[in-house]
Every structure is written in structure tokens, then in C-alpha cells.
Amino acid sequence: MAKQSAPLELAGVAPKLVEITNEVLFQDVWERSGLSPRDRSLVTVSVLAALYRGEQLPYHLGVALDNGLTVEELSEAITHLAFYAGWPNAMTAVTQLKRIADERAA
């Protein structure tokens, strides 16, 4: 898995939030053995897309690709969640996935 961390530029404004994000979320939760990083990425991308969390979604789409998910698998997950989480959420997510896939292909 790509080493994840909270944006360090936020530490000047919210140092404790950055610390907790790094130590609890990324160094503990993401490293637990109950799910693979690939599966955690699929869950994370799905939830972020479903909840329309566009600011965090591009980063986690990249992590998902780094963790072994393919563009096709992510596209299929986004298509599936359109029926449960809403069409606009899915269209936004797939637009971001296309942009990231295009950037990586270039």
C-alpha cells in the first residue's frame, strides 16, 4: 500500500487532527490484518463516492490503484453504487476516476 498520511500543511492549523489521522487511521486501522489494503481501498472509495466526499476521493482512488484495484474494477464498483447511493455521486466519482486514469496513462 502507498504510505498514507494527512496533508502535512494542515499540521500548522490542526496538529492533533493530523497526528490522530496518521497514527490511528493510517498506522493502525489501515494496517489491521482483517482486510487486505486492496479491500480497504474498495470499501473506502465506495463510501467516499456514496457520501459525495469529493475532496478525499481522488487521493483514495489513487491509493486504490496502488493497492491493486484496476480502473475496470473501480468503475464496476462505482456503477454498482449508483443504484444505492445516487446517480450524481456515481457520475462524479467516475469522472474523477477517468481523470486519474488519464493522468497515470500519460
Automatic annotation (TrEMBL):
Domain of life: Bacteria
Gene3D superfamilies from the UniProt entry: AhpD-like
Occurrences of domain Carboxymuconolactone decarboxylase-like (ranges): 15-97
Alphabetical list of InterPro entries matching this protein: 4CMD/NDH-1_regulator (IPR052512), AhpD-like (IPR029032), CMD-like (IPR003779)
SUPFAM superfamilies noted in UniProt: AhpD-like
One Pfam assignment: CMD
Protein name: Carboxymuconolactone decarboxylase family protein
Species per Swiss-Prot/TrEMBL record: Streptomyces broussonetiae
